[in-house]
Amino acid sequence: MKARARGVARLLSGAGLAASLLLPASAAAQAAPLSRTPAADGQQGQELPGMPSALDPRAEQAVCTPASRATAKKQDWSRHRLDLDRLRRHGTGAGVTVALIGSGVAPDAVGLSGRVTARGAAGDDCVGHGTFLAGLIAGTGGGSPRLAGVAPGARILALRGTDTRGAAGAALVTEALREATEAGADVIAVAVAVPRRDAALSRAVAEAQRSGAVVIAAATPDPPRGGTDKIPSRTYWPAGEPGVLSVADMVPGGTRPKGSLPTDGIDLVAPGAAVVSGGPRGAGHYLGGGASAATAYAAGAAAVVRAAHPDEPATAVLRRLTGSAYPAYIPQLDPYAAVTTVLDDSTGSTGVDRAAGPVTVRDTSAGDRATNRALLFVLLGTSAVLAVLWAAFALPRARARGWRPAEAEAETGAAGRQ
């Protein structure tokens, strides 16, 4: 009986071992977070340099972001997610001007040449971040057309909302907003954010809205290099202003990336991790992310909508972007739906009717728990199947040995031969 018990115990331990081999791998696949500054674009491990949103303010001398020597070979996940190939059948944003407030844009950058107007110092983009974002909005992709922006037919008005190292300031953003309004920009994309509300900035936003511009802003600044664990949740500006579309970043799963700055005001999320675009120098590509990249994608979508529906006011454009968003835990940008949807009085207007209080981000914990439960059921089912297969293989052999352990059978056979 003891031999039989040992044999059964061995069978069960074998099944448990097989299941345990699967559990860690599956759990790791579920738990592994997507890095905010990924080292590769996901195309068979191809390496691309990261595009910073700002240069080190502590350095005695600013060293501009060097040209990338690497090029992406395929379309990245963000463009697949936004379904840009199908979107372009309905327009490319031709005839629309998007004012981009950031670190500046190099007018002669690959994929942007001939379609960028830079005011003042905005034509010198030492950081490279503004040019990177302009490529997401209106770049043609140069020699990589699959990496074109959302609205490759639009024009870019480059304006500085930062200093030469990429540090944003309320006064700089205010002046840039006024210049965009005076220039008659159709869409104004504010790729930076400041932590405190400023009266002059609020007035500049209101003036832009009265002029008929669609104002879109990053819900948060891009995270600092030192981490975000000790940074409390707060509203950032001008994204918190009424009528401004507040946009945050998301990973392929639809949630915000690990380490994102917390905030209590988001109208929409768009791809903002492992995004590929060009820079101000050379023909290579970079990887970037953050709420600024998501804002660029939303601004490109707004440009296509304005070109496709030129008679609609800015409020209708915002209604299209928010009312047609993919209905996930946090609404996700869907440019194709925004262009093709038919507006009526029942269409949502999350970003238009927002009062002074910010929109609360919907809690994703319930969805995460549901995913974890589903994963647990799959793992338990897999373990059960493995146990049955193990038993089907091992039980007949154990029965043939009279339920004796394999070692005992080998010893008996050896004794018989002696």
What keywords describe this structure?
418 residues, alpha/beta, Rossmann fold, 7-stranded parallel β-sheet, 38% helix, disordered N terminus, disordered C terminus
Topology:
Blueprint: H1 2-31, H2 77-82, H3 84-87, E1 97-102, E2 116-118, H4 129-138, E3 155-160, H5 170-182, E4 187-190, H6 199-210, E5 214-218, E6 245-250, E7 268-271, E8 275-278, E9 285-288, H7 291-308, H8 314-323, H9 335-340, H10 365-400, H11 406-417
Parallel strand pairs: 1-3, 1-4, 2-3, 4-5, 5-6, 6-7
Antiparallel strand pairs: 8-9
Helix pairs in contact: 1-10, 4-7, 5-6, 7-8
- Which second-level CATH architecture of the largest domain applies? 3-Layer(aba) Sandwich
Integer average pLDDT: 81
- Percent range for β-strand residues: 5-15%
Which H/E pattern describes the elements? HHHEEHEHEHEEEEEHHHHH
Biggest sheet record: 7 strands, parallel
Broad CATH class of the largest domain: Alpha Beta
Overall, the morphology is: globular
At the fourth level of CATH, the homologous superfamily of the largest domain is Peptidase S8/S53 domain
Structural class: alpha/beta
**Total tally of structural domains:** 2
- What percent of the residues sit in helical stretches (DSSP H or I)? 25-40%
Distance between the termini: 27 Å
* Low-pLDDT residue intervals, each spanning 5 or more residues: 1-45, 347-372, 414-418
Computed Rg: 28 Å
Query: Number of helix segments?
Result: 11
Strand order of the largest sheet: 2-3-1-4-5-6-7
> In CATH terms, what is the fold-level topology of the largest domain?
Rossmann fold
Number of strands: 9
